[in-house]
Each structure stands twice: as C-alpha cells, then as structure tokens.
Amino acid sequence: MSAAPPPRVILEEPASAAQRLDFGWEVAVAPAAPIDRGWSSLGLAGLGLAVLLLGFSLLEAGNFVAAQFSQAAWLGWVTLAVAAAGFGLVFAAVGREMRGYLALGKVDAVRAAHARGDVVALRGALQDWQARLPEGRARAAGLADMPIDAACALVEATTLAPIARDAEALGRAAAIQAFAMTAVSPSPGLDVLVFSWRGIRLVRQVAALHGLRPGIAGTVALLRRVAMDAATVAATDVAVEAMLRGVLSSRIAEHVAGETAAGAVAARRMILLARAADEACRVLPRG
Amino acid sequence: MDPLSLIRGVLDTTEDAARALVGRERLRLAVTGLSRAGKTVFLTSLIANLVAAGRGARTLPALDEAVGGRIRRVQVVPAGTETVPRFDPEAHLGALAADPPHWPERTEDFSTLSIAIDVERRTSLGGLLPDRRVTLDLLDYPGEWLLDLPMLRQDYASWSAATLTRLRRGARAEVARDFLAFIDALPGDAAAEDALAKRGYTLYRDALRACRDEHGLRFLQPGRFLNPGPRGEAPLLWFFPLPEGARGGLASLCARRYAAYLDDQRSNFLDPFFTRFHRQVVLVDVLGALHAGQEAFEDTAEALAAVAAVVSGGNWLERLLGAAPTRVAFAATKADHVPSRARDSLAALVEHIALGARGRAEAGGAATSFHALAAIRCTEDAVATLEGQAFAAVRGILLNEGRGATIYPGEVPMRPPEPAFWQSGFFRMPEFRPPRLDPAGASGVPHLGMDGLLAWLLGDAL
Ligand SMILES: Nc1nc2c(ncn2[C@@H]2O[C@H](COP(=O)(O)OP(=O)(O)OP(=O)(O)O)[C@@H](O)[C@H]2O)c(=O)[nH]1
Ligand SMILES: [Mg+2]
What we know:
The complex is a heterodimer.
Chain A: E1 8-11, H1 25-29, H2 41-71, H3 73-116, H4 119-132, H5 148-184, H6 188-209, H7 216-232, H8 238-248, H9 251-257, H10 261-281
Helix pairs in contact in A: 2-3, 3-4, 3-7, 5-6, 5-10, 6-10, 7-10, 8-10
Chain B: H1 3-21, E1 26-33, H2 39-54, H3 61-66, E2 71-76, H4 89-97, E3 111-119, E4 132-140, H5 148-151, H6 156-167, H7 170-175, H8 177-185, H9 194-215, H10 223-226, H11 249-273, E5 279-284, H12 286-291, H13 294-311, H14 316-320, E6 327-332, H15 343-353, H16 355-363, E7 367-372, E8 380-386, E9 389-397, E10 404-408, H17 450-458
Parallel strand pairs in B: 1-4, 1-5, 5-6, 6-7
Antiparallel strand pairs in B: 2-3, 3-4, 8-9, 9-10
Helix pairs in contact in B: 2-4, 8-9, 13-16
The complex binds guanosine-5'-triphosphate and magnesium ion.
Guanosine-5'-triphosphate binds at residues 33, 35-41, 103-104, 106-107, 142-143, 333-334, 336-337, 374-376, 378, 431-432 of chain B.
C-alpha cells in the first residue's frame, strides 16, 4: 500500500504565465440546431404546379401577344398592356404574401436571439422591429446604449404592454359582437361561420398592432401559432374571467345571458383569442 | 416540536399540497457543507448551468435525459421585498471569469435566491395544459454556522463537557494550550467579571481559528466565533466552555450568554432557513480532509454526522409533515483535483466519511446517494513521472502564480485509509485558476458530474 508516493506539485518550467485552460465548453454545449426538414413532398409538388401554371401561362401569353402583333401593331400593344397588368397584379399579390409570411419569421428570429442571450443580434433585431411598427405607436428611445435587459424591459413597458392593452380592447369589442351575434342568429351553423370570420379578423387586427400584415399564407401560419399559444394562455386565466365578467355585465348581456350560454362561451373565446394572438406576435416573450 | 412549529408545519404542508395541485411546486434545496467545502461555487455553477439549460444549451445532459427533455425555461425569480441579501451569481461568475480571476471570498452572511424551472407536463394530455413551474429555493451561508445547529439540542453544561473533552485531545490540545491553562487556573467560583469573560473568549476564539486554519479541523463550535457575520462581534459572544466544577458568577454569565447566543441563532438561522427541506445535498471536501491528516478526516466525519442529525433526520412527525428531506445526496467536491480514474474512489470515500450522516438521513426515511463532482472544472488529466514511474495526475494553472503545474494528488483510497497511509503528512492542494469562462455565463460553466447529481436529486420532482 505504501508504494504510492506522497502528493506532489510539479511546476512547469517556463515560469511565465500560462494560458488559462479552455475546454471549448461553449461549442460542446451549443444547442443542437433544429433539424431543417426542408420541403415536404406535398410542398414540392405544389411549388412545381405553381411554376408550371405560371410559367406556361406566361409563355402562352407571350405567344398570344406576338400573334396579336402580327395581326396589327395596335392590337399587339393593347394585348401586351392587358397581360402586363394582369401578371403585375398576380406578382404583387405573391410578393405581399411572401412579405407577410417572412415578417412572422422575423418575430421568431428576435425571440431566438433573446433565448440564446445573443445581445448584439437582439439589439439590432429590436431596432428593426420598432421601425416596422405602425404610425403613432410609442417606441422606446436610446436602445443602442443601454444594457440589454434594461432595453428589453423598456420595450416591454413602452411598446409591448400598450399593444397588449389594445389587443385586449379589440378582444373585448369582438367578444361583445360575438355575444350579440350568437344571441340573435337563427342557426348554430351560421354561428360557427360568423364566429370564425370574426375570429380571423381579430387575429389579423392584433397582428397589425405588432406591425405584421399577414396575407393568406401568413394568416394561416399565424392561426397555427395562435392555436399553439392558446394552450399556454391558461384557460383558467383569472384575467380572462374578470374581463368576461366585465363584458357580460353590460345591460343587454344581463338580459339575455340566461338563455344563451353559448354566447358567453363565444365571448370568452374571443377574449382568449386576442390574448393568444398577442402572445403569438410579440417579439419578446411575456415576462 | 413545540405547538407553534407544529402549526407552522401543518400550514407549510397544506401550502405544498395546494401548490402541487395547481402545478406551482416549491422545492427547498438545502446545500449543506462545512466551511470551504465549495457551497458558494456549487450554487454559482448550479444556477449558471440550469439557466443555460433552460435556453437549450446541453450543459446538464444527464438531467435533461432524466426529465425527458421537458425543461422549457429557467429563470431567476425577480426580487421581491426580501430582507435577506440576494445571492449574486453574476458577480461570482464575473469575478471567476475576470483576469486575474478570483474565487468567492469566505461567505459572511446569508443570501438567498430562487429559480423557476418551467417544465412541460409529463402526461400525454400535458400539451393542452400550461407548463408546470417548479421553484427551487436556494440558500448560501457561512459553513462555520452549520455547527451551531447541533448546539441547539445541548445545554451549556453538556456542551462545555463535550467541547472540553474534545479540546484536550490531539492537535487541539496543543493549539488550545493557552486557553486550557487559562480555564484550569480559574477558581471554580470566579466572579462575573467581563474582563475575564472577554479574555477567555479571545483565547478560545484564537484556538478555534488555529484549529481551522492550521490543522484543517471542522468540528468547531460556536460558528460565529470563527465567522462573526455582518454584525461583528457582540457581547453576546463573550463566553467559552468551562469545566464542570465551575459554579460561580462567571459560569452563570457564560451559561446565560450561551442561551442567548442560541436563541439568536435559532431565530436568525434555524427557524427561518433550516426547518423545512425537500431535498438536501451535502458537499464534502473529502480530498482536503484526506490531505489534512487523520485527525482532520475523522473530525470532518464527526461534524457531518452532528449536522445531519439536525438537518436530515426528522422525527416521525416532521416526516409525516414532509419537513424532512426525502432525498439526500452526498457529494465530494473539487473532483477535478484528482485524475478521472480516481473519481470513483472519491465518491466511495465520501460514502465512508459520511457514514454517520448517512445513517441519520436514512433513519429519517430519506434516500441517499453518493457522487463526486467539480462545480467548476479547472484541470485536465495529465501524467506525472515520479521516481521513474508514471502516475495519473492533473494539470492546471495555479491561481496566484498563473503558472502551469502538474499535480499528483496522491493515492485516493476507496475506504478510510490504514494507519500507514497517514505517514505521508500534511499536503495543501494549491488553488487553481478557473478555465476561460464567459462572464455572462450564457452557456453555463464547465463542470464534472453536476448533471448526474441534479438528475438524481431533482429528476423525479420535475
Ligand atoms: N478546482 C476546484 N476548486 C474548487 C471548486 N469548488 C470550490 N473550489 C475551491 O474551494 C474554495 C472554497 O469554495 P467556496 O464555494 O467558496 O466554499 P464555501 O463552502 O462557500 O466556503 P464558506 O463560504 O467559507 O463556507 C474555492 O475558493 C476554490 O478554490 C471546484 O469545483 N474545483
Ligand atoms: Mg461560501
């Protein structure tokens, strides 16, 4: 047993300062990058179909314009103008869709920077986002030279909290409408239709508060997110309950509430929806 | 258990149950460790690595695996209106990352911090419900104070007798020579002179300090003599153990101050912080104790057992009320001081040094396990050539000199060593520079084995 020598410190020879050890820890623990699943085959097929449709109709239109020119110059010019206007509108719509869709992606980028604690990216992204907000919305000043947690808290207080309050107001208005509509509507089927339409409108209104103008694709993506966030906005949320009571205590509501429990449910869903939409669109997670 | 604490226990238990019902559990984690065991560094690393894990970094893989990757977010709970100072992991981390780096100073006061861990629910329907939030309550304090806990169950006479017996043995007798001579010369009926009380106190305190700093001993009471805390030395402290025969005014003054001291410690330390725990981790600097020699090693074991009797071993009523920890993990800290193949021995050795403490915990109905960990890993494996033979060693950068060094920590036995082992004499492990760290701690800090410990300790609660 006593074979082992006693403990010992062996100093390294060059007596100058040595580098601190580096285990490459940051790299070793970096979060696994989300697997990019790429395009689904359905998506690819859809894209191909769109390219075919658009491409062939462009070629067809080109041929047609050329044919018209060979008949008479004025006929050619008119045909060309019609084709250009038509395709211009189509491309403008596509462009708008893309932009709306991408803006939603930017929200994700800011949130990811926040979660990663990437100060530089977060600061830049917050400033970009502020620039995109609708006119008349209060913005935080001097974000560039402030500790990042202070900047986030300031953005929350000056911009995100008022937006949340406006979203709440929109939700209340929609709740009253939904309540009234279900109270007077003749058939439950119509209820669902009206309710869905009002819900989608509400979500888009809230998105607009956050500077997002989703097109059709954007709206679909947004609705998916809202559905996801609705799960986290607790159904038993006290705030929702309190607001609902506020809405229902208006005179008409009191009058009919007994008969239309469905109306109360619809109203409550609208309030929840406004909150979930706000949750889905905000650049910083709710504190 | 007096009626008041019984009522409080019932209330706390009700609150725990209510919190569990709405998915807002609160988990009190006791980090116990004698002075210099590594509590402050452990807490700093724990918080940095958990917060980083909440951001998706793979800093605690074993914990992640134990909870099936359900950790969503981890954040430090914002300050409320607490009167207790706040534990400041950013400041500690900043000092460790600075150039030149600093380890935390000796802790001199309490500080607390809570961290909130949001986890997805375990059930398949969990996706529809909001996340559960488990709040982990943490506490940092001077290690010396821990030994005041066993004193709460002793009166002045029995404490004096036990303390003096210990003081007349081994290395203590030598450094306490002046103090022992002083009390032996005191007449049994000495009057309540403050000059005498202060003199005795000073001699006794100096003896305790020498025991701690020169001999690595740990069973040193009272704790505030060694570490008076933010309020400094008050007249309350002017007492010392007296032999059985003493009956005079001085003896009763000492006894009064002893009782007042305990009252003070009870209301400031035990009652607010040490009455109710759900989980406990006992940190032990086993290697330091081993290197400090047989007496220090045995003394550490004895101190651990005495503390465990109060913290982990609840009586049946306390257990019923959930006031005693259900899981107690024993961990050898600074495992980076030995090469990786010796770490298992370190964990085995902690099992032996904590034998008494383990018995208390298990008698209290707690599950126990043993680990070796480094809260902040400061070394890499190396080979040392000694007398022509190669030995597994570690290499690190020395804290003060900034110079690289290979350290052979000696043989780490799996069980309490044989008498022959202690011949090699006292060895003091040098302090190392921490590795390169990100001062903001965005990706946690390099560690060894923290994740395994947390997986066992908290895995089932998340
Ligand atoms: N190499 C290494 N050294 C450590 C580690 N943890 C602690 N140490 C060393 O141990 C010393 C004491 O650690 P602390 O965390 O301050 O100890 P403590 O238990 O808080 O001590 P008190 O506050 O006096 O009760 C530090 O200054 C470090 O030198 C570790 O993981 N690795
Ligand atoms: Mg400390």
